């Protein structure tokens, strides 16, 4: 797995290569205007220590921050996403701590409200696989990366609100 961050657009200027997680890219670069994902899948974060806006990137070239739907040229940390060769299961709840209505998904869902009849997800349990929550239906808006585990409240997956419009499995991109 390899990701390369460039200070300037179109893969120009000072750069930093990473083959694993990095909690603070600021010591290597002052800004990030383009990214090349040599192989693998990554989540890059706007702030150090895996905080702020999150962006899911698969193998390919991103010549400017608009190409990964970035709000600005600030990328300060990154996580590599391990390969997953198995099934996918996630349970969503409309209340914190796994209370209230529950719906289990094994496939992508482009509109949670139509499928589950709720627009706010307050907790979830990722049983198998890696997932991305999107704030809006149709895989649009802010993105939130979820590893297997329990998320007792929405702030634990990095969101400032409980709106989840769609969800997608991270698979078959290697």
TrEMBL record:
Domain Beta/gamma crystallin 'Greek key', residue spans: 40-82, 129-171
GO-annotated molecular function: structural constituent of eye lens
Keywords, ordered alphabetically: Eye lens protein, Repeat
Coiled-coil intervals: none
GO terms of biological process kind: lens development in camera-type eye; visual perception
Residue spans crossing the bilayer: none
Superkingdom, taxonomy of origin: Eukaryota
Pfam families (alphabetical): Crystall
Assembly, per entry: Monomer.
Family from the record: Belongs to the beta/gamma-crystallin family.
Function: Crystallins are the dominant structural components of the vertebrate eye lens.
Name recorded for this polypeptide: Gamma-crystallin 2
Gene: cryga.3.S
């Amino acid at each position: 797995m390899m990701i390369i961050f460039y200070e300037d657009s179109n893969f120009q200027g000072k750069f930093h290569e990473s083959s694993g997680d990095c909690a603070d890219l600021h010591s290597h670069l002052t800004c990030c205007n383009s990214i090349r994902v040599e192989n693998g899948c990554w989540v890059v974060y706007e702030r150090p220590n895996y905080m702020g806006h999150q962006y899911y990137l698969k193998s390919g070239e991103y010549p400017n921050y608009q190409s990964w739907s970035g709000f600005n040229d600030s990328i300060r940390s990154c996580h590599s996403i391990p390969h997953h060769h198995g099934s996918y299961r996630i349970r969503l709840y409309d209340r914190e701590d796994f209370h209230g209505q529950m719906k289990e998904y094994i496939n992508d869902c482009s509109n949670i409200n139509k499928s589950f009849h709720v627009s706010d997800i307050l907790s979830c349990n990722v049983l198998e696989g890696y997932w991305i929550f999107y704030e809006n239906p149709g895989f649009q808006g802010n993105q939130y990366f979820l590893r297997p585990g329990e998320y007792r409240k929405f702030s634990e997956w990095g969101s400032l609100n409980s709106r989840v419009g769609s969800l997608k499995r991270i698979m078959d991109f290697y």
